[in-house]
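Team,

Forwarding the record for the chain on the shared tracking sheet. I've put the sequence and predicted structure together so nobody has to dig through attachments.
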Amino acid sequence: MAPPPGRPREPRIDTEVLAVTREMLVEVGWERLSMRGIAARAGVGRAALTRRWSGKEHLVLDALLGSAPDLEPYDGIDRRGWIEWVVTGSAELFARPDVRAALPGLLTALRDHEDLRNALWRTFSGPSTALFSDGTDRDALDARAVLVMAAGAALFGSLIAAEDDTPALRARILELLLPVADR
């Protein structure tokens, strides 16, 4: 197979830009974050960013979540372990300073961009729910429901119920969701 036309991409640029994006989110927040500012701090041309990401929303999602889900935490676990990881991983994600800084603007962007919202859900729910499901519609629905409840609880806890976002509350959420594994 012939290589694609043009100059090959420099992987260092992706790594540097994603790291700079996370740093700048914490430092300046969503509103003041710009593609131009990221490019300048990363020492790359703005065109390098726009070739890789179509906009700030796409770049920020890639910086926070990666381009595909990390399925390593699910390796070799059963359904109960899957639910435990979904609850724990969601809480850890929404507790991160870069994610917290991005959330207000990112939620608005997701509301306004159906394509981005749908792609995010399909990219991250599909592979992880396949690990839970035995292929039946009910199992797939249960897995998606657990994802929605765990991530929703973590998001709500980190933004709104922050004073109650404790290990005890997260443990209780887990207790409430674990019976799904036994169905």
